[in-house]
Amino acid sequence: MDRDLVVKARGGDRDAFARLAAAAVTSLDVVARMIMRDPERDKDAVQEALARAWRDLPTLRDPDRFDAWLRRVLVRACMDEFRRSRSRIIEVELTELDHPQVIDSSLALADRDALERAFRRLDSSQRSLIVLHYYLDLPLVEVADALALPVGTAKSRLFRARETLRAALEADARDVVEIAGGQPA
Amino acid sequence: MTARRDIDHLIATWLTEIAPEGHVDYLDATLDAIGEIGQRPPWTSVGRWLPMQLPLGRVVLPRVAPYLAVLTLVLILAIAAVVITGGRNRLPAPFGLAETGLVAYVSDGDIFVTTADGLGRRRLVSGPGAEWSPIWSHRGDRIAYWAAPALGDPASLWLADRDGSTANLLTGTQTFVVPDQLPAVSWSPDDRRLAFTSDEGVLYLVGADGRDLHPIGDDSHERHDAVWSPDGTLLAYRGRPHADRYTTMSSWVITPDGRTDIEVIAAKGGQEITNVNPSWSPDGTSFLVHTGMFDIDISEGRRDATGAWSDRVLIGGPTQDFHPSWSNAGTKFSYIELVPGTNPEEFVLMTANADGSNAKQVSTVRVGFAAQCWSPDDRSIRAVGPSRIDPAILLIPVDGSPVVEIPEPGQVSRGACAMQRVAH
Question: Which of A6, B25, B177, B190 has the most CB within a 10 Å radius?
């Protein structure tokens, strides 16, 4: 992140903002796709996040915090997009992005499917927590910052989301045992 | 077996495997669209609206001189309050001094109360999770608050007696995502009902006995920050279209039965934090909000004898003015005005006549970005200090007398002091 570009963009320099956006948009898109699990809605969320970032950039006090701030704007946009679409009936398009062909996966197919199904049952806040913590490998303090949550709240929500995923895997494992052996584990 | 495997490793591995290839083909179109959007001035940061989270548990004792001054002021105002509340000219709800004379605030997930001089701090409500948004009833005999396993979780609305006892759950098995900044509840003038809005923008009413919880209004738009009018016939709120991409806000009023819903002050485009926290005049014919985006104005929504609404700008021009607050008598209102060139931004307290004339600065003392409230006798105005590191309540006399500064224990409530019945 180029601090000078942030300062210029904060002062209204659109070219500087365009360069910042170009540098960040790919990673924003990836994170949004993983949170939303829907290619159309993730695009809307990223576009919304960039629009908000431009509009609100003058309110950013510390230019060095740009990356974390932008992440927070993106997460907020994802959650808003998630909420907006919650009342709509979404026909999920299972594209290549949703189920990439994993040739050398270290996970069993059943585990991947169980995680996918359980992840889709999480709310937007829990999905964001999981992606930020486990994929971006952010410490809990930064995850909490991105979601504008107290650290304790972020921790408890992450724990619950993690337990949801664990329960899905356990249930899946029980099903496998039942089918294979005819008796519950 | 799966259950015994390292769940953290599994999740991380799965996420890595499903991570899509980075390819974005919509950046140019996005930047073109952004070309139509202006930037917000820095002081419109939403963060300035939120109650400040301080290191909690710190009890700040006032210095001796201010302490004596406060005691004197408290005594004088207490006598005045007794005269006011006991006389014929008793101020109509929701104005006036609560019987408890206590300020409620949140600290460390529990609700505390203190007198306005910062003394007598004690825990009022404590639970296993988080409690927030304590709002006294108009009579001050009960206090409403939200509670959840953790701040930000779906929450339940509770009601307790003034001493924190006899807590009753009002919302039953239903939970709601509600703001964790104040105000999150508004009492009806007769204290029989409460109004609140969920994060999804649904306006609910519930009886103070926990009965008749129901939403009001149709599904045409979101509703936030509802505040009862003093006569109980309307609720003013901040409206927002469902499909609005840029969170444009306008001011609305709705009858408690939800049948009449009127947009009073239309959005002027792109505002995210305007038209919030409406301040009703004592006679209920008018409410004030701040509006606009760059040159923030003080606007009034007013209804005539036929019930027709109109709006007008009371304080306009190039200045940036925020947080209007009616005096108890309804003859003046206060607001804060940005001091140009200050960084971090600071504000001065202003007052004006009811028609917007005679706008003047009350004191040279700088104040923070927050709502104000008037003392019951309208002789002083409660504001907050400009520092977020050492927050304080400022009691600013309108006659130019010295300002009293009270270090504030715990958390600063910047959004709803009018709801807190601050006792002077």
Answer: A6
